[in-house]
């Protein structure tokens, strides 16, 4: 196949050429006229499984021939001639053992990291050990590194790496070590007997140590060759020499962020010059003029003087270079996805193959969702992360149950998960019970789901055998999960899987429901089997450690479904852009931090230590990403896309896109015109996508909704209200209409929080218990305070499930206890509590209406009469003007007491009406009962009768937000009244309803 040569053989394919097509065409040219078996004697090493599959697909298209052996550079040990190699340890088992080592280090040095981060640290440490094996770094050399100028953290990390990598045990022997040993055995075999048949390394850039050594060895074989993808032959000799110098001169930093640096480093190791890289096939690039433009834009810095010298000659070819370039600069990722989807739709209609190339998986999913509008399903090479699939989320949510109480919000999420109770005939009844339980729990404000909560729910309604069985099934599973303690990883996995299968099966069912079905379920099965196999190496885990481990482990796996994808549309990762070419290539997510990605932080070795140890630098990944970018830009038509803003901040354009636009701007009017044309084509896509989005959205009414004042028939208007609703009737009548006419009640939050309303309820419960148990406030102050706080702690513990909140609220109550006890002692001396949280009512005069009340307390006074008292927590008592106009609750309670509306009290004249501030007793005050000879309770009752009489007139509407106390007031029914389409200055519109 190759002429004899004493120099290494390096070949290249042009930028913008389909690498598989070029490789095959070069093989055909060199094997032309050879016997048929010559094809079968060729061995080709490729760099990725996808590349191998793509090459096999291309060979399968014909003509009929013997297939060459196609192997992976990362799987040299699969060669049957290399028997007797020590096998590699399981990657997961290695990380689990490293996790135990990291945990022991954290125990000794707690400032290193939280224990929950042990598995993630073990994963990064495993990758570091693999890299050391791949790069051939001798563990003994780490001991010679000078860390005197580094912090103690790096010295500690280096010590641990030296210990782990230097031991003789095979426990940490990974695939990189196996591949390195396989290469050594292969090179020894070739040294003894040089292969006569062709051996080719194709598609790799030599960025990893073992692969680079293989490429060097193959290039020197009598019939060996290396085919490099996307070598820039447009780059001047001086620039190549600069890259070669940076690769060989230890006194200057290597320019690894340049897309052609890896080729220069390979040339320097082989003792070759750029002119020694020959063309593999007679294949022209798609756009030579654009390749020259991009080559100039990406030259190593400083480049300004080179742009001035070499840029003007390119102006004549700018129309050809940029005429098929489009630049999208969208306002947000959502707008970017819409414009990209439209570009793909136009390409499909034109019959052109299209690939979206991006490292941003979120953007890729947004584009996939946008394409669904036209039923276009792209061939996504990445698949879906397992932890985002239904089985993955279910396994993570069930792992979160172990050893901890279940708050209401995650409980409802788990109960509504599509895999919960997915056994035959179970899903419908389960969802019905879940819906009923959610409505009850949110009305009641239940903070957690446990057996006590389920029993309270059952007690609140007519129970059936099926409902009881469902509650018992759920309570039993939750109790079993909550009792989980620290145990071995194998035992924890078994308990977790048992729990997940029981939840998936449903009440009284065996099996696992739909948990392990279809592609996502099968992927979850394989993942858990892998974890179960490696579990004996994992040691013991507690609840939080296991949750972190399972979440991180499932995030590494992927689910590949088999939808009927469109044959012309694909989504690729950046590495696939090196070796495959389509008609239209869309390079998306071109922002700093995305493409190129921000270099990952290595918690074990910093950049200086890596450089001194001879390991890979972070710039290597930037250089590889730059090469991917340069290759993809060689397509016939290219769309460059970025969003100006991310979800929370402005973005910075990718450095390569920035260089390209700056170069065009500096090329005078021709360059500026070319750039404007690129942006204009992108702006057209954005305008069309925005117009399509507006057209697809539900049209809004041309006029805003009126401020509603619904007027229902007199027969459906409320005939009874509690005094606490009277203020609402005055301030926001629409809320009374929605609550009592439409019978709509506000649901509580899915995740109850310790807010002011809950604190008020708890403190009221404390005082209620004190009064019901006849707590004596008159003893020695210290003893009374201690007994009172003990009682309060008991009540708070029964109402508040959050330990930190319990301590906080009890501490705040303790600070106010001395004043509160003195105040209560005076009240006990003056009278006896008779009505404690009991309901009373009286009918209004001349109106068919009942007003009811449930006062905090009413005391019968020793001097005669009664005292109506109301507890306040966080808020100050209302002012006299507020009481007169709006907050009539306390005086109306006094009027009901005077009318004999409370059973057990009788008709008692009010002698005192007052507020007791529990948070700050100094704010406690009494309301005057008489002003200018007017007895206020009676007057309030008459005023209320007049108010109710007006609302029993069918022409009177219940106006929304009639007199809110604050402009920031948020009513429970604002969404129903469409507040926002009108404001508080709009005139109400009476709307007859229900007629």
Automatic annotation (TrEMBL):
InterPro entries: Ds_break_AddB, P-loop_NTPase, PDDEXK_AddAB-type, Restrct_endonuc-II-like. Residues 696-716 are annotated as: Disordered. Transmembrane segments: none annotated. SUPFAM superfamilies: P-loop containing nucleoside triphosphate hydrolases, Restriction endonuclease-like. Residues 701-715 have a biased composition (Pro residues). Residues 723-926 form the PD-(D/E)XK endonuclease-like domain. This is Double-strand break repair protein AddB.
